[in-house]
Amino acid sequence: MDIVPQTTKMLTDDWDYFANAVKGVARKSKEDFTPKQVYQAALRNDATIFHVMEDDVKRGLLVLTDHVDMYTGKTVLHVDMVYLTGPSIIAGMTEILNIIASEHEFDKVEFRSPRKGWFKYLSRAGFKAGATFSKEF
């Protein structure tokens, strides 16, 4: 499995795939972000977007951001979005995240999802479960 960085031109050239992946993640996670908002984040260089490839076949979309924790000063690689077409590649995805974090000297990888299915995969990969509570106004 490989990840291939996508430029904003590449995203617009393959807009249907990108938009369907983003909409699918938003729907399943009960969030209200849109493909246009994710695209705008990439345009501002606030997010990095990758196609997930396996045997030269597109198998998903990965959106990453990073920040420095304001209290600890630790660098954080944040998985904003993962769209995968099959559970068989989840283990490979967590390995790729470990490689990215190591190569770019991040102190921590964070992943937030309201979807319970991710807990078992992330727990096996060494992620510590936490909870995020939110209230919209």
Q: Average pLDDT, to the nearest integer? A: 88
- Indicate the structural class: alpha+beta
Residue stretches low in confidence (pLDDT < 50, at least 5 long) are none
Strand order of the largest sheet: 1-2-3-4-5
Tally of DSSP helical segments: 5
Number of strands: 5
Morphology: globular
Largest sheet report: 5 strands, mixed
Spell out the helices and strands N to C. Answer: EHHHEEEHEH
The radius of gyration is 15 Å
Beta-strand percentage range: 25-35%
Distance between the termini: 41 Å
Q: Roughly what percent helix?
A: 25-40%
Overview of this structure, please?
By secondary structure, the protein is of the alpha+beta class. It is 38% helix and 28% strand. The protein is built from five helices and five strands. A five-stranded mixed β-sheet has the order 1-2-3-4-5, sandwiched between helices. β2 and β3 form a beta hairpin. The longest helix has 15 residues. The radius of gyration is 15 Å and the shape is globular. The mean pLDDT is 88.
Write the layout of secondary structure elements.
Layout: E1 2-6, H1 8-13, H2 15-29, H3 35-43, E2 48-54, E3 57-68, E4 75-84, H4 90-103, E5 108-111, H5 117-124
Parallel strand pairs: 4-5
Antiparallel strand pairs: 1-2, 2-3, 3-4
Question: Can you give keywords for this protein?
Answer:
single chain; 38% helix; alpha+beta; 137 residues
Concise overview:
With 137 residues, the chain is of the alpha+beta class.
